[in-house]
C-alpha cells in the first residue's frame, strides 16, 4: 500500500521539481509496453540481490530465533521449534537487560564525545590559517582512513601493559601505578580504550564534514553577528547551529546507529572481556550464538537488537526525508 | 580585526596537539614495524627509529599462507566491487533518468539497505551459507560484500548520472542513437570519474570487512582482516611483526583514501564509508 501512495506522488504535476520530466513521460507513453518496463528491468538485478542477500537473511534471522538450535540440532540437521521461549528467556534474564543498559550507556558516551570533539575540531579548522588547516586535515584523514581492524591491533599495542607507550607516558607524568597497568583486565579501562579508539576513528568524519558545511555559510552572517557584539558561544548558538541543524541531527543519528552496532572494535580489541563485562548487544549476540553454539538464542538477541536499530533508523529517516526533497 | 597574541597562538597550538593525537597511532604502527626488537621492548620508547630494519616485514610476508590471504582479499574485494558496479549502474540510471511507479519506494529501500545491520545478521548468514555447503569458500563472501556496497554504489552513481546533462543524451537520441547507444557513447564516458570514486569506496568497505569472514571462513579461504586479528595469537607478543602486518594491510587503503579525500568530504558519503 505504501508503494501505491508514494508511487502516485512521484508522478509529475503535483508540485514536484519542475524538471520531473513530462517529456520523458510522453515519450514513454508513445513507445508502449517495452519502454514502460525498461526501468523495472534496470532495477531488477538490484532488487533480486537485495531480496536474496539482505531480505532473506533478515527473515531467516527471525525464523531461527523461534527455534531451539544448538550444536546438537546443527549437526543432526533437525529443526526444533520452541515458539517464543528464546525471547521470554532473554527478556526475563538480567544478563540481557544489563547488556542493553551497557550498550545504551556505551553509545551515549561515545556519541556525546564524538559530536562534542568533532564540532570543536570542525570549528577550529574554520579558524586556522591555510597551512595549519591543511596539516590538521591531513592528520584527520590519516586517522579516518585507518582500517578498523588495523586500528584495534595498534591500540592493543599502544595500551600494552609492559611495553605500551601509553603506560610509559603515564608513568612519566608521575602516575607511577600506571606502569605495567593491564588495561584489558577491567571493565572500565577496557571500555575507555574502546571509546578512545572509536572517538579517534569517528571525529574526522564529523569534523571534516562540519568544516565543509561551515564554508558554505556566508562570511557576512558571522560579520553581522560580530557587529552585534556576539561572542564565540553566541555566534555558534545563533548562527552556526541553526543553519547547520540538519547536519547536526543527521550526523548524530548516524553516529548513534554506527556506535550501537559496532562489533569489530569491541570484539577484536578484547572479545567482550574480561568475563563478558564489555559485551555490547552485537557482541553478546555473537558470543551467545556462535561462541556458545546457541544459535537460536543468539538469533533472538540479534532480532531484538535489529528492532532497536530499526526504531532508531525510522527516526533518522523521518528527519532526513523532511529535508530531502530531491528524491 | 586584530587579535591578541594569545588569540593567535591557541588555535595553532591546539591544532598541533590534535594533529599529534590523530596521527600518533598511525605513526607508531609504521615506526614499530621498522624498529629492531630491542628498540620495541626498551624501557624508554624509541620515538624515532634510527636503526631501521625490514626484518618484521619479512616475518609478516613469510608467514604461512600470507600470499594466499592477499590473493583471497583482492579476489573477494575486486569481484564484489565490480559486480555491484554493474548492478548499481543499471539501477542508478533508472532512478536518475526515469520516472516510474515505485521509484520512491525503491530509493527508500536502498537508503535503508545502506544501513543494514550486517554485524548482527551473522548467525542467519552463517545458516544460509551452511545450507548451501559453501562455508570456507570465497563465493558467499563475494556475494555478501557485493550486497554490502551495493546501496552506497547505487546512491552515489545516481548522483553522478543525474549530473550528466540530459541535453547531451537527448541530442544523441535526435541524431539517431538508441537509448542504449546514447548511454554507452555519451553518458558512460562522462561517468568514468564517478565510477572510479564509487568503486574505490566500495573497495575500502569490502577490504576491511571482519564479522562475516569471522563466522563464515573459520578454517580456510580467510582474508587479511581475520588473519590480522589472529596474528598476535599466532605470533605471540611479536609486536614488530604484528605492526608490519597492519602496515601492509593499511597501505592500500591509505593510498586510496588520500586519493579520494576531496570527494569524501561534503556529504557524498553520508556515513557509508565507515563501519
TrEMBL record, chain A:
What's the protein called, per UniProt?
Sugar ABC transporter permease
> Which family, according to the similarity comment?
Belongs to the binding-protein-dependent transport system permease family.
Residues of the region (Disordered) are: 1-30
Sorted alphabetically, the keyword list is: Cell membrane, Membrane, Transmembrane, Transmembrane helix, Transport
- Primary localisation category: membrane
In this chain, composition skew of type Low complexity spans 1-10
Q: Where is the ABC transmembrane type-1 domain?
A: 100-316
Q: Name one Pfam family in it.
A: BPD_transp_1
Membrane topology listed for this record: Multi-pass membrane protein
From which organism does this entry originate?
Answer: Streptantibioticus parmotrematis
**Transmembrane regions:** 38-59, 104-126, 138-158, 191-214, 235-260, 295-317
Q: Where in the cell is it found?
A: Cell membrane
UniProtKB/TrEMBL annotation, chain B:
Where would you say this protein principally sits, based on its record? Answer: membrane
Q: Which residues form a coiled coil?
A: none
CDD domains associated with the record: TM_PBP2
Tell where it localizes: Cell membrane
Q: Which residues cross the membrane?
A: 12-30, 74-93, 105-129, 141-161, 182-207, 239-260
Question: Keyword set for this entry?
Answer: Cell membrane, Membrane, Transmembrane, Transmembrane helix, Transport
Q: Which domain of life is it from?
A: Bacteria
Task: Indicate how the chain sits in the lipid bilayer.
Answer: Multi-pass membrane protein
Asked if the keyword S-adenosyl-L-methionine belongs to this entry, the reply reads no
Record's Pfam families?
BPD_transp_1
Classification via InterPro entries: BP-dep_ABC_trans_perm (IPR050901), MetI-like (IPR000515), MetI-like_sf (IPR035906)
Ranges for domain ABC transmembrane type-1: 70-260
Q: What protein family does this chain belong to?
A: Belongs to the binding-protein-dependent transport system permease family.
Q: Which named protein is this?
A: Carbohydrate ABC transporter permease
Amino acid at each position: 500500500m505504501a508503494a501505491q501512495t508514494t508511487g502516485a506522488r512521484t508522478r509529475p504535476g503535483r508540485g514536484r521539481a519542475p524538471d520531473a520530466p513530462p517529456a520523458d513521460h510522453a515519450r514513454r507513453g508513445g513507445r508502449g509496453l517495452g519502454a514502460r518496463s525498461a526501468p523495472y528491468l534496470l532495477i531488477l538485478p538490484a532488487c533480486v540481490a537485495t531480496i536474496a542477500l539482505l531480505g532473506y537473511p533478515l527473515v531467516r534471522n527471525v525464523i531461527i530465533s523461534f527455534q531451539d538450535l544448538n550444536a546438537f540440532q546443527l549437526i543432526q540437521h533437525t529443526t526444533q521449534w520452541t515458539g517464543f521461549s528464546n525471547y521470554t528467556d532473554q527478556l526475563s534474564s538480567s544478563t540481557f537487560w544489563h547488556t542493553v543498559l551497557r550498550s545504551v550507556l556505551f553509545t551515549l558516551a561515545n556519541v556525546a564525545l564524538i559530536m562534542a570533539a568533532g564540532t570543536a575540531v570542525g570549528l577550529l579548522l574554520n579558524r586556522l590559517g591555510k597551512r595549519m588547516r591543511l596539516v590538521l586535515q591531513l592528520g584527520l584523514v590519516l586517522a579516518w582512513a585507518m582500517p578498523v581492524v588495523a586500528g584495534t591491533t595498534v591500540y592493543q599495542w599502544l595500551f600494552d601493559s609492559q611495553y605500551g607507550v601509553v603506560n610509559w607516558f603515564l608513568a612519566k607524568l608521575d602516575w607511577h601505578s600506571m606502569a605495567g597497568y593491564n588495561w584489558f583486565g577491567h571493565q572500565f579501562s577496557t571500555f575507555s580504550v574502546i571509546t578512545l579508539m572509536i572517538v579517534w576513528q569517528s571525529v574526522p568524519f564529523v569534523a571534516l564534514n562540519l568544516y565543509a558545511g561551515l564554508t558554505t555559510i556566508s562570511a557576512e552572517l558571522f560579520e553581522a553577528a560580530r557587529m552585534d557584539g556576539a561572542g564565540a558561544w553566541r555566534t555558534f548558538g545563533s548562527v552556526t547551529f541553526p543553519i547547520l541543524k540538519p547536519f547536526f541531527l543527521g550526523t548524530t543519528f548516524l553516529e548513534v546507529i554506527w556506535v550501537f552496532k559496532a562489533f569489530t572494535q569491541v570484539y577484536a580489541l578484547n572479545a567482550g572481556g574480561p568475563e563478558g563485562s564489555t559485551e555490547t548487544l552485537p557482541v553478546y549476540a555473537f558470543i551467545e550464538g556462535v561462541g556458545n553454539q546457541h544459535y537460536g538464542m543468539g538469533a533472538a538477541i540479534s532480532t531484538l537488537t535489529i528492532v532497536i536499530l530499526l526504531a532508531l533508523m525510522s527516526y533518522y529517516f523521518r528527519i532526513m526525508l523532511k529535508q530531502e526533497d530531491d528524491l | 580585526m586584530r587579535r591578541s597574541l594569545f588569540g593567535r597562538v591557541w588555535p595553532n597550538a591546539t591544532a598541533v596537539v590534535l594533529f599529534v593525537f590523530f596521527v600518533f597511532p598511525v605513526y607508531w604502527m609504521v615506526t614499530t614495524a621498522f624498529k629492531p626488537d630491542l628498540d620495541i621492548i626498551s624501557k624508554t620508547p624509541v620515538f624515532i627509529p634510527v636503526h631501521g630494519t625490514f626484518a618484521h616485514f619479512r616475518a609478516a610476508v613469510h608467514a604461512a599462507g600470507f600470499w594466499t590471504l592477499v590473493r583471497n582479499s583482492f579476489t573477494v574485494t575486486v569481484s564484489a566491487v565490480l559486480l555491484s558496479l554493474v548492478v548499481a549502474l543499471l539501477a542508478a540510471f533508472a532512478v536518475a533518468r526515469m520516472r516510474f511507479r515505485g521509484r520512491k519506494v525503491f530509493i527508500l529501500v536502498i537508503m535503508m539497505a545502506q544501513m543494514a545491520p550486517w554485524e548482527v545478521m551473522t548467525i542467519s548468514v552463517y545458516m544460509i551459507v551452511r545450507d548451501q555447503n559453501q562455508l570456507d569458500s570465497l563465493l558467499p563472501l563475494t556475494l555478501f560484500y557485493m550486497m554490502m556496497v551495493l546501496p552506497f554504489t547505487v546512491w552515489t552513481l545516481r548522483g553522478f548520472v543525474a549530473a550528466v546533462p540530459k541535453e547531451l543524451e537527448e541530442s544523441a537520441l535526435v541524431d539517431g542513437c538508441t537509448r542504449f547507444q546514447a548511454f554507452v557513447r555519451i553518458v558512460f564516458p562522462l561517468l568514468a570519474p564517478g565510477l572510479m570514486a564509487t568503486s574505490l569506496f566500495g573497495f575500502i568497505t569490502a577490504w576491511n570487512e571482519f564479522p562475516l569472514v569471522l563466522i563464515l571462513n573459520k578454517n580456510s579461504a580467510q582474508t587479511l582482516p581475520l588473519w590480522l586479528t589472529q596474528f598476535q595469537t599466532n605470533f605471540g607478543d611479536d609486536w614488530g611483526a604484528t605492526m608490519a602486518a597492519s602496515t601492509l594491510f593499511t597501505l592500500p587503503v591509505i593510498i586510496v583514501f588520500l586519493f579520494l579525500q576531496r570527494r569524501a568530504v561534503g556529504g557524498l558519503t553520508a556515513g557509508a564509508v565507515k563501519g
